[in-house]
Amino acid sequence: MWQLGLPWALALLVTAAASGPSAEPADPASIFADLSPAELRAVRAFLMERPELGLSPSRGGPLAKNSLFLVELLPPPKRSALRFLAHGGARPRREARAVIFFGAQAEPNVTELAVGPLPRPSSYRALPFKGGRAVPFWARPMTRLEYELLHEALVAALAPLEPLLREATGFGFQNCSERCLTFSDIAPRGLRPGERRTWLVIQRFVEGFFLHPAGLEVLLDHGDRDPRRWAVRQLWYNGRYFGSVRELAESHARGALPLARLPEPPARQLFSSYEPRGRFSSGTPTDVHGAKVCEPQGRRYRLRGNRLEYGGWSLAFRLRSSAGLQLFDVRFDGERVAYELSVQEAIAFYGGHSPAAMQTKYMDAGWAMGASGYELARGVDCPETAAFLDAHHLLDADGPVRFRRALCVFELPTGVPLRRHFDSDFQGGFHFYAGLEGRALVLRTTSTVYNYDYIWDFLLYPNGVLETKVHATGYIHATFYTPEGRRYGSRVHSHLLGNIHTHLVHYKVDLDVAGSGNSFETMDIRFENISNPWSAGARVWAALGGMRAGVGQERPAPRLTPPLPCGRYHLAVTRRHESEPSSSTIYTQNNPWDPPVTFESFIRDNESIEDQDLVAWVTVGFLHVPHAEDIPNTATPGNAVGFFLRPFNFFSEDPSVASRAPVIVRPLDPPACSRLHIQRW
Predict the structure, then answer these.
(1) Which residue among 124, 362, 452, 454 is the active-site one?
(2) Is 374 a residue of the active site?
(3) Which Pfam families match (predicted)?
(4) CB burial string 442-478: b at 16+ within 10 A, e below
(5) Which helix (DSSP H) or strand (DSSP E) does residue 189 occupy?
(6) Residue 124 annotated in active site
(7) Fold adopted by 307-418+435-522+562-652
(8) N or C: which end of the chain has fewer CB within 10 A?
C-alpha cells in the first residue's frame, strides 16, 4: 500500500483552508445524501493539488500513472449519526471516499482515502481495510483508458486473421468504419493472484451484439503497465484451441480449418432487436395504450432532498457509485426499524464449453454497478406519474457526470387488496363488506452492467412491511454454439448457446428494532401427537411452535471456486462493526482469490449475537437456464427475487388501520340488501 511520509502525515492534521458555513440543507437525512457536483469537484480539486499524490488526469496518458478513480460519500460512523439524529447538535463530519490508482511507482497499488471536511476539504487520511490488507494494482477495476488500449492491442494482434474473419462473418477489425467486429470481456482476469489475462469474446457489432459471437475467443495478457508488452496467449475458434494467432491464420490459409460461416444479418427485424415482428393470434389490439397509473388528487408521498415519506414510513436514501441503492434511518411512525438496508453485490456464475464461458464469474460491484444506472424511460421503466431524480457520479472521469433520471419514486396499485372481507349471512345476503386497496410506494433504479439489466426496487407497504426486489432482464451472456456446449445450456439461435448460470444478490440489513440491541431467533414448528382433552381415547395432531436463539450463520450454499465473497450463505447474522461496512468490494472481481474483504472473516470470530447491534446479510438468487424465449431479452416475469421485512408482534394491530382509504359497505335492509350504506374517508 502507498504510504504517507512522516512530514505529510503530520501535515494532514493541519487545516489547509478555513472552512466556511455549511451549505447543506437542514433536513437530518442530508447526512446520508450523496455528494453534490460541487462537493465532487471540490474533492477532486483538493487531491489534484496535493504534490505528494502526483495525480494525473484520468483520461489519456499512460497506464503507469497516479490517477483518481472514484469519489463518493463516506457515510458517517453509526454512533455519531445516531447521536445527531436523536439529539441534534453538531452534524457528523462530512467526508468523501476517494479511490486512487498509484501506478507510477515501483510498487503500484490502489489506496483509499477519506477526504474532508466537506464542502471545503482540507485534509485526508488513509482508509485501511480490515486487517490492514493492501489492494494490489493488478486487482484494480478496468478503466476507459485500459479498454481503449485493449482494443488497440487486439486489433493489431488479430491483423493476420482479417481474411478469416471477413470470410466467416463478413465483418472485420482493420480500418473499420462499418461492418465492424467488437468484443466482450469476461472476468476474473486469470486463474491465480497477480494475473491480468482476459478472455475476449469476438462479436459482430450489430444491434444486440451480445447475441452475435463470431466463434472466436482470444486470451489477451494485459498485466504489464506498458501496453507494448501485452500479447495474445491463446485462441479458441469454433471448438478448437490454438497457441498463437499465426497458428490459427496458417491453419485457415492451408484450408485445414472448418470455418463457422455466419449468415448475413438482415437490415430489418434482426432477431436481437426490439423491432416488432409476428402477430398475436387473438387479434386484440397492441398498437393502442394500455392501462396507466394515475394520481387523481396528487401525490400521497413527500420527497425532500434524499428523504422519502409515505404513510407511516420515513427514510433517507442514496445511490452509491460502487454498489447502488442504500437506505438509512428507516422508520415507521417515527420509530426506527432499520439503520441501513443496502445492496452489496450481484453475482453471476456461468458454465460453458468455450474458455470464456467456463471462466465467467461476474461480481458486479467490480463494474461499479451503482454508476451503471442510466436514464429511466417515463411510461416504461417507471409510470408517467413518477418523480424522477438525477444522480451525479465521479467515476473514471475528470469531473462529476450527471446521470439524468437515474432514480424514480412512484405509488403503485398492487392490483390486489391489502386486506378485505365479505361477511356472509349464509342466506344469500351479507352483514358487511370491508376492503382496503392495495398500494405500495416504490423506490427504483437500474444497473445495466454491460449485457444484463437489473431493476432494483424497495417497496413500502402501509401495513409496516418493506420488500426488496430485483428483476433481471437485458441480454443473456451467450457464447458461440458447438455441439459440446449443449451440456452447459440451450441452443437459443442458429449459432448461439445460452449458457447456464446462477444469479445471486447480496444485501446488508442492519435492523434496529426497538433500539440497536437486538437478538436473533428462529422459529421451529413441528407437529405433536397429543391426547384429545375433550374425547377420551382420541388423539389429535397439533402444530407446536417455539423460538430458539439463532446462530451466527444459517445453512450454507454449495461452495464454488473461486470462493464466493458473500453469497455462500442464504442468511448470516453478525455483530455490527464499523470495520465491516460492506461484504464485497470493487476489487473482488479481479482478485477473488485473496480479496481485501473476506466475508468469512465476519463470522469466523464466533461473537455473541445476543442483545447486540446486529446485521443480517441476506442472499437471494435463482438459476437461469436460458431458452429461446430469452431472445431478444430475458423477460422480468419469473426472473425476480427478493425478501420481506415484516413486523412480528411489533405493533398492537395492523398499522394500516390509520389509512383513510378503506371502503365499508353495510346493508340497510337485511336480508334483502337492496339499500346500502357505503362509508369512505
Answers:
(1) 452
(2) no
(3) Cu_amine_oxid, Cu_amine_oxidN2, Cu_amine_oxidN3
(4) bbbbbbebbbbbbbbbbbbbbbbbbbbbbbbbbbbbb
(5) none
(6) no
(7) Beta-galactosidase; Chain A, domain 5 (2.70.98)
(8) C
Give one word for 238, left, alpha or beta, with left for phi > 0 and alpha for psi -120 to 50: left
Arch. (CATH architecture) of 144-254: Roll (3.10)
Q: Residue 13: what are its φ and ψ, rounded to 5°? A: -80, -5
b/e map of 169-198 (b: 16 or more CB within 10 Å)?
bebbbeeeeeeebbbbbbbbbbeeeebbbb
Whether the CB-CB separation of 345 and 323 falls below 8 Å is answered with yes
For 476, half-sphere exposure in the C-beta direction (CA atoms, 13 angstrom radius) is 34
Is residue 584 within 8 A of residue 599, CB to CB? The reply is: yes
Closest among 174, 184, 188 to 210, alpha carbons compared: 184
Residue-level pLDDT at 3: 33
| Cα–Cα nearest to 644, from 303, 337, 293 | 337
Distance CA 616, CA 614 (A): 7
- ∠ CA 511-516-519, nearest 5°, is 70
In this predicted structure, what is the pLDDT of residue 540?
Answer: 83
Q: Count other Cβ atoms within 10 Å, centred on residue 238.
A: 17
Q: In which region does residue 333 sit, left (phi positive, over 0), alpha (psi from -120 to 50) or beta (all else)?
A: left
Per-residue cell: 225: 503497465
Phi, psi of 246, deg, nearest 5: -60, -40
**Boundaries of every domain in the chain:** 29-127, 144-254, 307-418+435-522+562-652
First to last CA, the chain: 64
Q: Which amino acid is at 183?
A: F
Measured CA distances, 543 to 523, 532, 535 (Å): 12, 14, 19
Euclidean distance between CA atoms 308 and 297, whole angstroms: 19
Q: Give the three cell numbers for residue 343.
A: 445492496
Name the active-site residue from 329, 364, 512, 613: 364
Instruction: Name 139's bridge partners.
Output: none
Grid coordinates representing 438?
A: 392495495
Task: Find the length of the chain.
Answer: 681
Contacts of 671 (CB under 8 A, 6+ apart): 425, 427, 428, 429
As a whole number of angstroms, the distance between CA 561 and CA 8 comes to 42
**C-beta separation of 364 from 447 below 8 A:** yes
CATH topology of domain 29-127: Nuclear Transport Factor 2; Chain: A, (3.10.450)
Q: Which helix (H) or strand (E) holds 200?
A: strand 197-204
Long-range contacts formed by 327-334: CB under 8 A, 24+ apart: 327/443, 327/458, 328/29, 328/32, 328/75, 328/81, 329/28, 329/29, 329/32, 329/81, 329/85, 330/466, 332/464, 332/655, 333/655
Q: Which residue has the cell 439489466?
A: 453
Cβ distance 201 to 190 under 8 Å?
A: no
Residue 327: how many CB atoms within 10 A of its CB? Answer: 23
List phi, psi (to 5°) of 420. -160, 160
Separation between Cα atoms, residue 267 and residue 270, nearest integer Å: 7
Is this structure's pTM higher than 0.90? yes
Domains 29-127 and 144-254 agree in fold? yes
Cα 596 to the chain's mean position, in Å?
20
Which of 359, 500, 376 shows the shortest CA–CA distance to 443? 376
